[in-house]
């Protein structure tokens, strides 16, 4: 009895120090924020973290619509001239006032050598300071989606950057070594970084001088990366973490079943799909000589109809995916709501293959990543089985992402006959996908760089060019719809699904889960 | 003596150059680091520019020569992922790994030796059978699984110990330690056990076997004949003589523990060099990988050098000057 009491007392002491402050938010992601420099890496998680510290001229609401942030309002005074009226009385964390100079500086920095976010401010000819709180942006062509990516083109303080030698972007190839902005931050955002230990912990506290009214009740935000899936889930279940993501599919039920935690899922904006090489006249890694079966629309349709997306959704993805009919997700501007997937019909597949001259099918290699998308390799294995049923023998080559992308993308010479890829348009607009993935490859204009299969449809190319400059938004949406329908009827790609976002949250914590998987702290409340 | 040391040091340099060379050969197969360094929409021109700046387009022997030249001056370049000097990152991470390794070695010795002695002295007791069974589990279960099981039991179910991380770190300037705070001690328990379990089993079985051997020797019989107490015989005479091989093995195993820490650190998100290395492999962060491999090679080389020097001190035959001894061993 006495032993038992001592035992329990010991346990109480051990557990005692784990009870955190009520308003401290602790969360974990599978990787660290790569850098605090807002112009150094165009990657969702890193930019999402920085978005709590830095702000853009615009920002996005939980449902991803654009709202004013550092710019109070803007107007298009000529087709190629936008005027931005900046918010007055805003200060950076160090107390410096925010002015038009800082906007121009952030533009220059975002387009300087080593910047990875230049694409967010592409198509700008010049930025002109009108007065301290007004900036004119002159674009090279009329551009209706100029500000689509400005919510994470972050504004930096010119004075701070100059004083600390952070004018240049943190650049891996920089002979001077590490930039000051890599581990220090000075934004205008709702939170300020107080401690940064890369790969271990990053701590932030609310900015008392923030211009907007805080919705959150946080006093501190502690972020720690936990790479191992099982450990990350354990940290949530044991109460050490308030929120963790991603939660692996096999653990979502367990997180949901616990009295202390719940799982938060929703469709992600990324669409995962398969692509077929249609550029080469002889298919690589196959037993077909002198021809490329994928150039024949009947073969593409046969492959499409052989894929049973319901089975993949149910079995491989455990219900945590949304089968897709096209390359963009609901929530992306221009998503064609009326498009339905063509029916799954293996009998039709076999007929089509016979008509195309492959009654016994053919053999081809499928390239897959094995650590990039949710259950990527398992999906590919399912595809191998489904295609075997219609006579197509698929050899699966699944590799780690650095090897995989080095092979199939442009720098590897598009070395693939049949591949898997996932894509989130960072502008949340269909144009980005049409230009990068569907457009005929063209080095000079940079079109179709990620069109690994070399799909080419001049009609879609023409529509894409029109979409870029069409300023009537209703007309623009029609053009986008037309382009998606053409691709759909041409079986140009094999869309698979949107995988699910999967967060684990402690009860008592309310968050707004954004479909782009960004975690925005200003919507968070914590109670015990 | 000096000639011997110089010769050994020269060997060491050659070993490390060879490790670096093999490492660079392998880097041709870890994939393209560029994709992990930029966003999806970075243009091909920019990517190519970056490759050129980083010298990734050069043949591997050129990359190797450049690396070896810089490394000799203590410069391992900037990490592709962290965008900071590699030597800074490694020096930041090293204390975590060394503390974990030393704690797990102490655990292995502190538990393994008594268990070994006990099982040797009480071969047929029930407890001995339990110890032997536990040691079997320690040898056969993978580190990864042991870690997960411990987390499940002590962090999730009982909530006694933290499931991950290294809290309570105190910065001493030249070193940072988590062993000065209660939080830090709690956090090191599970990783140290996970990492040390295999070594503990090894030491236990070694001590047991050595003890059984020593107990059969003549001098133990004589000790008993002199009427010494069991206690004096077992601990004063028998155990003392079993410790020589145990210390040798433990010393050599320390290098293995440091290298094996990769898995334990990954499971417990322990911020040491093993976790750093795993991240570097995932992202093809070549500067970090090469520095890590060279450093591990350096550890092994130094440990072996010390062992050699110890033999030199212990074994008088090595000290005899042999003028005509160049004709082979």
Describe the structure in your own words.
The complex is a heterodimer of chains A (528) and B (329). Chain A folds into two domains: 12-176 and 183-245 and 508-526, Periplasmic binding protein-like II (D-Maltodextrin-Binding Protein, domain 2, 3-Layer(aba) Sandwich); 271-500, Dipeptide-binding Protein, Domain 3 (Dipeptide-binding Protein, domain 3), CATH 3.10.105. Helix content of chain A is 27%, strand content 22%. Chain A contains 14 helices and 20 strands. In chain A, the strands form five sheets. In chain A, strands 1, 8, 9, 10, 11, 12, 13, 14, 17 and 18 form a ten-stranded mixed β-sheet that branches. Chain A has a four-stranded antiparallel β-sheet with strand order 4-5-7-6, covered by helices on one side. With 329 residues, chain B is mainly alpha-helical. Chain B has helices spanning 2-27, 34-37, 44-54, 60-72, 86-121, 126-140, 143-157, 182-215, 218-225, 230-267, 273-282, 286-314; strands spanning 170-171, 176-177. The longest helix of chain B is centred in the last third of the chain and has 38 residues, at 230-267. Chain B folds into two domains: 1-80 and 284-319, no CATH class; 93-275, MetI-like fold (Orthogonal Bundle). Chain B has twelve helices and two strands; from the N terminus they run αααααααββααααα. In chain B, helix 1 (2-27) runs antiparallel to helix 12 (286-314). At the A-B interface, helix 1, helix 5 and helix 11 of A face helix 2, helix 3, helix 7, helix 8 and helix 11 of B.
Record keyword descriptors for this entry.
heterodimer, A: 528 residues, alpha+beta, D-Maltodextrin-Binding Protein, domain 2, 10-stranded mixed beta sheet, 4-stranded antiparallel beta sheet, 14 helices, globular, disordered N terminus, B: 329 residues, mainly alpha, MetI-like fold, 12 helices, disordered C terminus
């Amino acid at each position: 009895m006495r032993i038992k009491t001592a035992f329990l007392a010991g346990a109480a002491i051990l557990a005692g120090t784990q009870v955190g402050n009520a308003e401290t938010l602790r969360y974990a992601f599978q990787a660290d924020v790569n850098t605090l420099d807002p112009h150094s890496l165009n990657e969702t998680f890193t930019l999402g973290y920085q978005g709590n510290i830095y702000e853009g001229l615009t920002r996005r609401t939980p449902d991803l619509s654009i709202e004013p942030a550092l710019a109070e309002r803007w107007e298009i005074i000529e087709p190629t001239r936008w005027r931005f009226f900046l918010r007055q009385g805003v200060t950076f964390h160090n107390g410096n006032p925010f002015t038009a100079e800082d906007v121009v500086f952030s533009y220059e920095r975002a387009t300087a050598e080593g910047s990875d976010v230049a694409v967010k401010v592409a198509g700008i000819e010049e930025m002109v300071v009108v007065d301290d709180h007004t900036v004119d942006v002159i674009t090279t062509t009329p551009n209706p989606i100029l500000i689509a990516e400005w919510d994470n083109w972050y504004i930096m303080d010119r004075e701070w950057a100059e004083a600390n030698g952070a004018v240049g972007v943190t650049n891996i190839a920089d002979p001077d070594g590490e930039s000051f902005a890599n581990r220090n931050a000075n934004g205008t955002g709702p939170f300020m970084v107080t401690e940064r230990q890369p790969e271990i912990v990053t701590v932030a506290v609310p900015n008392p001088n923030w211009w907007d009214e805080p919705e959150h009740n946080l006093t501190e935000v502690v972020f720690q990366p936990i790479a191992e899936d099982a450990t990350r889930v354990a940290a949530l279940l044991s109460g050490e973490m308030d929120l963790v993501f991603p939660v692996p599919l096999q653990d979502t039920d367990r997180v949901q079943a616990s009295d202390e935690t719940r799982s938060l899922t929703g469709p992600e904006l990324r669409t995962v799909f398969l692509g077929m090489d249609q550029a080469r006249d002889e298919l690589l890694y196959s037993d077909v000589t002198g021809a490329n079966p994928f150039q024949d629309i009947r073969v593409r349709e046969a492959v499409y109809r052989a894929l049973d997306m319901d089975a993949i959704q149910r079995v491989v993805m455990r219900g945590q995916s949304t089968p897709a009919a096209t390359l963009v997700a609901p929530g992306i501007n221009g998503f064609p709501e009326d498009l339905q997937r063509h029916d799954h019909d293996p009998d039709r597949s076999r007929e089509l293959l016979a008509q195309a001259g492959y009654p016994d099918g053919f053999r081809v290699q499928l390239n897959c990543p094995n650590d990039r998308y949710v259950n990527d390799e398992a999906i590919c294995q399912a595809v191998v089985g489904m295609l075997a049923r219609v006579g197509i023998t698929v050899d699966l080559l699944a590799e780690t992402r650095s090897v995989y992308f080095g092979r199939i993308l442009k720098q590897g010479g598009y070395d693939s006959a049949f591949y898997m890829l996932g894509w989130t348009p960072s502008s949340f607009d269909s144009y980005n996908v049409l230009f990068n993935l569907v457009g005929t490859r063209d080095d000079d204009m940079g079109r179709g760089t990620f069109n690994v299969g070399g799909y080419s449809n001049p009609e879609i190319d023409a529509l894409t060019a029109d979409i870029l400059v069409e300023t009537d938004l209703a007309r623009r949406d029609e053009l986008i719809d037309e382009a998606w329908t053409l691709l759909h009827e041409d079986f140009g790609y094999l869309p698979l699904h949107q995988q699910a976002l999967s967060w684990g949250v402690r009860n008592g914590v309310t968050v707004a889960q954004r479909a782009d998987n960004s975690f925005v702290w200003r919507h968070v409340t914590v109670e015990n | 003596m000096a000639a011997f040391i110089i010769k050994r040091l020269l060997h060491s340099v050659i070993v490390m150059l060879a490790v670096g060379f093999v490492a660079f050969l392998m880097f041709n197969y870890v994939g393209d680091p560029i994709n992990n360094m930029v966003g999806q929409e970075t243009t091909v021109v920019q990517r190519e520019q970056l490759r050129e700046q980083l010298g990734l387009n050069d043949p591997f022997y050129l990359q190797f020569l450049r690396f070896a030249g810089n490394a000799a001056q203590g410069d391992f370049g900037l990490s592709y992922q962290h965008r900071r000097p590699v030597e800074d990152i490694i020096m930041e991470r090293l204390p975590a790994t060394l503390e974990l390794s030393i704690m797990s070695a102490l655990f292995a010795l502190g538990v393994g030796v008594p268990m070994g002695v006990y099982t040797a002295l009480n071969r047929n007791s029930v407890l001995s059978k339990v110890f032997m069974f536990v040691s079997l589990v320690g040898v056969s279960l993978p580190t990864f699984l042991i870690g997960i099981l411990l987390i499940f039991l002590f962090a999730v179910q009982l909530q006694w110990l933290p499931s991950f991380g290294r809290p309570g770190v105190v910065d001493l300037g030249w070193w940072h330690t988590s062993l000065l705070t209660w939080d830090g001690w709690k956090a090191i328990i599970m990783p140290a056990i996970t990492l040390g379990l295999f070594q503990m089993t090894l030491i236990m079985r070694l001590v047991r076997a050595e003890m059984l051997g020593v107990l059969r020797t003549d001098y133990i019989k004589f000790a008993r004949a002199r009427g010494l107490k069991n206690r004096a015989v077992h601990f004063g005479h028998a155990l003392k003589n079993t410790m020589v091989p145990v210390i040798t093995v433990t010393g050599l195993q320390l290098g293995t523990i440091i290298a094996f820490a990769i898995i334990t650190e990954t499971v417990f998100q322990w911020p040491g060099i093993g976790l750093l290395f795993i991240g570097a492999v995932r992202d093809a962060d070549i500067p970090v990988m090469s520095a890590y491999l060279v450093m591990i090679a350096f550890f092994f080389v130094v440990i072996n050098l010390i062992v050699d020097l110890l033999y030199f001190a212990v074994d008088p035959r090595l000290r005899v000057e042999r003028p005509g001894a160049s004709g082979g061993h």
